[in-house]
């Protein structure tokens, strides 16, 4: 089994969510810390971002926050995360999320999380990013998005092979298994990027 040393986690900053999402985030964080995996995330102190950071810190794991300067200025950043990369803008932040990671993990989230996930899927489709993209479908949160992706394939906007871009899992304890079971991906994917 390949060692998973560093992952990026996309997740929400909203506090107005069902506690089951927070619980799943804690379970995920503990599983990764137990594996000695460094976690990169958006640097926030609220919502699932805050839950993730708090749990990693409590479990004595390593977490790196990445955030544009303007967000720090309005005090969105987690004060107890001591490893931070501050970027010029959101575009640079997204690029930094992917540097040196072994996988991307997506927790439930709003438009920012969805935008990050869709950009990662697009980059993998083009062979620019080749690491596993795993979607934690807690409480069937991503069912509609997954149906839309299936519909895109069925309607010919994506290739059947593009189903291998992402892996879906439901149990946060199984995150390492989900990463390991992801289909290998090549930079040559650009050859079938068009449907």
TrEMBL record:
It is an enzyme of class 3 (hydrolase). GO terms for biological process: cytokinin biosynthetic process. The keyword Chloroplast does not apply. Pfam families: Lysine_decarbox. Its EC number is 3.2.2.n1. GO terms for cellular component: cytosol. GO terms for molecular function: AMP nucleosidase activity. It catalyses: AMP + H2O = D-ribose 5-phosphate + adenine. Keywords: Cytokinin biosynthesis, Hydrolase. NCBIfam families: Rossman fold protein, TIGR00730 family. Belongs to the LOG family. This is Cytokinin riboside 5'-monophosphate phosphoribohydrolase. It comes from Roseivirga pacifica.
């Amino acid at each position: 089994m390949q060692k998973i040393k560093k992952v990026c986690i996309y997740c929400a900053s909203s506090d107005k969510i069902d506690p089951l999402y927070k619980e799943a985030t804690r379970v995920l964080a503990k599983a990764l810390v137990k594996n000695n995996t460094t976690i990169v995330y958006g640097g926030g102190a609220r919502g699932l971002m805050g839950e993730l950071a708090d749990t990693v810190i409590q479990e004595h794991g390593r977490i790196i926050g990445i955030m544009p300067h303007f967000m720090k200025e309005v005090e969105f950043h987690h004060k107890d995360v001591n490893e931070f990369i501050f970027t010029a803008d959101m575009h640079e932040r997204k690029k930094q999320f992917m540097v040196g990671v072994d996988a991307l993990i997506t927790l439930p989230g709003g438009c920012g999380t969805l935008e990050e996930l869709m950009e990662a899927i697009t980059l993998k489709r083009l062979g620019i990013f080749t690491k596993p993209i795993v979607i934690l479908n807690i409480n069937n949160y991503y069912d509609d998005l997954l149906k839309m992706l299936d519909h895109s394939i069925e309607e010919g906007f994506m290739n059947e092979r593009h189903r291998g871009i992402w892996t879906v899992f439901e149990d946060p304890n199984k995150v390492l298994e989900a990463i390991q079971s992801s289909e290998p991906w090549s930079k040559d994917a650009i050859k079938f990027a068009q449907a």
